[in-house]
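Write out the 3D structure for:
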Amino acid sequence: MLVKECMSKNVVSIRESAFIQDALQLMKEHSIRHLPVFSDSGEFVGWITDSDVRGVLIASMLEEISVADVMVRKPLTIRPDDYVEDAARLMIEKKIGGLPVVDDSQVVGVITVVDVLKASMELLGITRFASRLDLIFPEDGKDVELAKVVSIVEDNGGKIQSLYSSQEGKYSLYLKQGDMSRISGALENAGLHVVCTEARKGGESLKS
């Protein structure tokens, strides 16, 4: 998935000449934590976060502090045609919560950790699954192959939305449909250990 497919396109920004209280008000009003900063001539010149603002909030009560005084100049950016994974990696490495998305020196969006998480859930089908089961392969890994697991699920009336492995030998299967009791029983009989099952009903999750 590309950055442009999950970034926020309605960019809320602020001028570098604005005061810290103005930035805080904008963040509260739009429920956001990052603001691209522009010069009075409209040039992208910086990036300011809620932590930057709160770090000088008390001082701003005693003197006028502008956005330009505390913003990050030459901030890290990402391009709209970069992969979401690249944005995630950059945010993790630099320990930041968001990035301005820049195309030809123009800010065209903002991508945050929340946007990346939503994209990841969408790719995995987590937002659309009807049921889920977690299972563990035998320690030797020789008796059961992943293709066989898929076959067992389908032979027992299940339809897989997506499959995710958190670590070697452990898998989570997200199903569009299927009788969880029947499917988990068949998998157990094949030598796998079903850790838990979860079926959604009316938007809620029921675990067993």
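DSSP finds eight helices and eleven strands in the chain.
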